[in-house]
Amino acid sequence: MWLLMLPALVPVLLFSVGPLLYGIGLAFTDARNTRVHETSFVGLENFTDLLADDDFWASFRIGAIWAVSVTVLQFLAALGLALLLNQNLRFRGVARVLAVVPWAMPPVVIGLMWKLVYHPDAGILNDLLGTDINWLADFSLALPAIIVVGVWTGMPQTTIVLLAGLQNVPKELYEAGEMDGAGRWRRFWNITLPQLRPVIVAITSLDFVWNINQFGLVYVLT
């Protein structure tokens, strides 16, 4: 069995596990970009310097706000969209295709597109609001503006997973709820959410990890 898995394991070991272990090893040395191969062991010195750096904690706080906010808002928006797309809409097929468009776009393209939307002089948003706000340069507005982009970017994959979960909920449960006199909200709270719980836990966990690692989008926007 291991021989059959070898062709797949070798690339993983070479391009994933190997660089990971090498990077962990470098963390305990005084390696720099200009001299990676001429290093000496420094133990935990790099980690103590990092924890004592105020810039690190400021970045950590902003990163945590970003990851948590995007994950929560992304889930709520995706759940609402999934519930809508699960209805018998006239153009449901077209709506489902349009809903996944952001998923097909590279992060750099998304960043450049939204940078134009937020442009202080020629941006669509300022034209609609009749303002000249520099959304990405104002510290108090930049983070909320980027969070909106993050939610829009990651919402399609969350919507698809939740929609698949909704379609797997047995119809008999809703019929039984209607017979017992349960309204739409009670059916959602007592039937839909409990049935979706495993899906919700899985997709929000994946979204959180994905949002933590979302560097390219934020870099392009800022």
Automatic annotation (TrEMBL):
GO cellular component: plasma membrane
UniProt subcellular location: Cell membrane
Transmembrane segments: 64-85, 97-114, 134-153
Recorded superkingdom: Bacteria
Ranges of residues in domain ABC transmembrane type-1: 60-222
Pfam assignment, any one: BPD_transp_1
The keyword Transmembrane is assigned to this record: yes
Keywords, ordered alphabetically: Cell membrane, Membrane, Transmembrane, Transmembrane helix, Transport
UniProt record similarity statement: Belongs to the binding-protein-dependent transport system permease family.
Membrane topology note: Multi-pass membrane protein
PANTHER family: BLL4140 PROTEIN
GO-annotated biological processes: transmembrane transport
UniProt keyword Chloroplast present: no
Listed name of the protein: Sugar ABC transporter permease
